[in-house]
Amino acid sequence: MPDPIDVHVGSRVRLRRTLLGLTQDGLGQALGLTFQQIQKYERGTNRIGASRLVEIANVLGVEPAYFFDEMPEEIEGYGKKGMADEATPFEAESGYSKRETIELVRVFEKITDPSVRARLMDLVLAIGDAEQEEVNRSSGADD
């Protein structure tokens, strides 16, 4: 079973790679690796060594610390005495595991006009708020 920290780091590699529109093969070629090795890194099956993590960070245009950002509290305490709970990987807790979410972020980043970005953001927020209100009404009606 993969270490939860390796799973989190791998999911952040996948997130950044996908946001940049890179394939596993493309990242592998940039690093002199096969796409299968990239798959294993992204799943947390193979641990990424420190020097390799710096190489990946350089190719993906981020600092190595990026791969540890947004680490769930359960994982942050992983391995310390008294931590008995099973840690949940980052992707399972966030919307970033959904391909359409990643694609939406990628496309949004391509919009260069600030007013268009702001209007789109307003639209998405309004739709999200309306959906949440509907969920709240539905759950309140059942009580």
TrEMBL record:
Any one GO molecular function term: DNA binding
Top-level taxonomy: Bacteria, Pseudomonadati, Pseudomonadota, Alphaproteobacteria, Kordiimonadales
Protein known as: Transcriptional regulator
Alphabetized UniProt keyword annotations: DNA-binding
Source organism of this protein record: Kordiimonas sediminis
HTH cro/C1-type domain sequence ranges: 13-67
Gene3D superfamilies: lambda repressor-like DNA-binding domains (1.10.260.40)
PROSITE patterns: HTH_CROC1 (PS50943)
GO cellular component: cytosol
Domain of life: Bacteria
